[in-house]
Amino acid sequence: MGYIKHLGGPAWYLIPLIFPVEVISLCVRPITLAVRLMLNMAVDHLILGIFLGLFALFVPLPVMLLGCVVILVQTLVFTLLTCIYIDLATAHEAH
């Protein structure tokens, strides 16, 4: 009950304004995380395809290594944001 009360905002008269925005925000967070991760991996493959078409000899290996680094960083960001969102959802009343 405290979590739903927290979604209403700091004052009772703000509940009709803040509650719908907070509920939409909670529902959209996992979708935005998934889309962000998918697009970053897709752009990496797109860049690799472009460089393969331009220079087929030496460029693909560094671009593939860069792609691996990008995917590792995106996985870290995805995991970190997921942990932060879970922590925000399960936080106790501090204010």
Structure characterization notes:
With 95 residues, the chain is mostly helical. It has a domain at 29-90. Helices cover 81% and strands 0% of the residues. The protein has three helices and no strands. The longest helix is centred in the middle third of the chain and has 40 residues, at 15-54. The chain is elongated and about 65 Å long.
Write the layout of secondary structure elements.
Blueprint: H1 2-7, H2 15-54, H3 60-90
Helix pairs in contact: 2-3
Number of helices: 3
Q: Structural class, please?
A: mainly alpha
Percent range for helical residues? over 70%
Largest sheet: none
End-to-end Cα distance? 15 Å
Shape: elongated
Number of strands: 0
* pLDDT averaged residue by residue: 81
Beta-strand share of residues: under 5%
Rounded to an integer, what's the Rg over CA atoms? Answer: 20 Å
Helix and strand sequence: HHH
- Low-confidence segments: none
Question: In short, what is this structure?
Answer:
The chain is mostly helical. The chain has helices spanning 2-7, 15-54, 60-90. Helix content is 81%, strand content 0%.
From the structure above, extract its key features.
mainly alpha, 81% helix
